[in-house]
Specification:
membrane
């Protein structure tokens, strides 16, 4: 175990410390528990725990020398510069992506979370010049159903339903996933 391995663990040690601090604050969430319901502290604690677990795994990997095929920060920045050069060749795609995000934020309460997310995903993939139509529509459908399942069935998050007649889409998805 050399200095390089120890240096590579530093970001993960910092992440582990931050996880501990965040978990301490998540313990401070005050609420009245109801039997059979998850409290508002459940998902933050799960997420923070997963963050800590990933940090521990990465610390162990670095110290044991697993996956030493890592690149230095210089190579990482060079790759990012190459990606920026590609993005510079298509400035209208960037502007279009920003516009799509802004439109999504504006219409999400009117169309509802699920319908606006579905339309956003399809539009974003077409904007990005992906042309496998079947993959676009299946991916958007799968992600929308997955988000509905996660937020409506497991996390019990209140999502914008949308205004009539768009709320019918949310009701239809809710019927499909059994929420």
């Amino acid at each position: 175990m050399g200095k390089t391995a120890l240096r590579q663990t530093l970001p993960y040690v910092a992440g582990l410390i931050i996880s501990g601090i965040l978990y301490h604050y998540a313990q401070q969430i005050d609420y009245s528990p109801r039997p059979g319901d998850l409290g508002p502290d459940f998902w933050p604690k799960v997420t923070i725990g997963m963050m800590a677990l990933v940090c521990l795994i990465e610390i162990a990997r670095r110290l044991m020398g697993v996956g030493q095929e890592t690149h230095g920060i210089a190579e990482t920045f060079e790759k990012e510069e190459e990606e920026e050069e590609v993005a510079a060749k298509h400035p209208w795609m960037l502007v279009g992506g920003i516009a799509l995000v802004l439109v999504y934020a504006v219409v999400v309460t009117t169309l509802g979370f699920l319908l606006s997310t579905f339309i956003f995903l399809v539009s974003f993939m077409y904007l990005g010049r992906y042309r496998n139509h079947l993959a676009i529509w299946l991916t958007a459908t799968g992600i929308t159903l997955g988000a509905a399942l996660l937020f409506m069935r497991f996390a019990y998050v209140s999502l914008p339903r949308g205004e009539p007649p768009f709320d019918a889409f949310t009701d239809f998805i809710r019927l499909i996933i059994g929420a």
